[in-house]
# Entry
Amino acid sequence: MKTLVEFIWEQQEIVGTATGEFSRLLNDIGIAAKIVNRDVNRAGLSGIIGDDGGVNVQGENQKKLDVMANNEFIKALRNGKQCAAIISEENDDVIVFDDKTTKNAKYIVALDPLDGSSNIEVNVSIGTIFAIYKRKSIGTTITKEDVLQAGTELVCGGYVIYGSSTMLIYTTGFGVHGFTYDPTCGIFILSHPDIKITDTGNIYSINEANYIYFPEGVKRYIKYCQEDDATTNRPYTSRYIGSLVSDFHRNLLRGGIYMYPGNLKNPQGKLRLMYECVPMAFLAEQAGGKASDGFQRILDMQPEHIHQRSPLFIGSKSMVEKAESLMREFSPDFLDAE
Ligand code: P6P
# Structure
């Protein structure tokens, strides 16, 4: 049995960065995840189901659980003193910690504290998605260059899935590793070392209700998935939970593709680049998969603002590449058409 803390230290000794700051930061995320897990598991009993009454920067009604989870992660990261600033889906602006110790902290965390939270009212798995960047500036206030970093600069990407069991999955560029939470002793234990996604799969995940608004390349790919061709194991199976973390986690373990494309109503789609697409793309690539906006590698994209959206095609490499080839053939100018 190897705990999350033991594993982080072991990994840091391998990469020679066993300074302890990153280990503490990831452990702080683990602490917040345990608290959110407790509250999510009791949601029906503790009066935290329903709307908070607030509206986030995306114009979405905030759920009480969104606000609770956001507050828990901010508190854990502030108290841990390894994080200098937080980008959160639930906050319009960057949260900067400028007390005397934290202002020199090395890391910045981008966070979707509770993705898919509307599902909690019907007991569907949801998750937290996080991305950790190393700040560029030292000893000054946080700069724009610290905050708007491309995914290639990512130090760590991961998620927590609050499902039939609660798991924390992360990568620091040395493989993807999964830890299952044992609530009887309150620790995350290594259960899925070195996760790899199969090069192809037979699961496709997309909200087909938007079919008429999809670019032609996406329509062609959906029809490709539905064709009868035993030699390529088609028709595939359609699985769409409406929770990115849950759909991604299943496809990571079983093979498959998740797509949230742009459409005629929202050419950039719905998902946010910095704290949804990028951490998941880092995980997908580290597991041997692929992630793009249909044309460009997600990790190469330079964010212009912290809540920027991006289309997302992510999962088994050959499935993403097939979808990309149809986008190039049938919708080459889709993203330029804005
Ligand atoms: P739609 C949840 O709101 C989320 O951000 C992802 O977790 C999920 O995959 C997607 O949106 C669902 O969106 O438009 O299909 O309901």
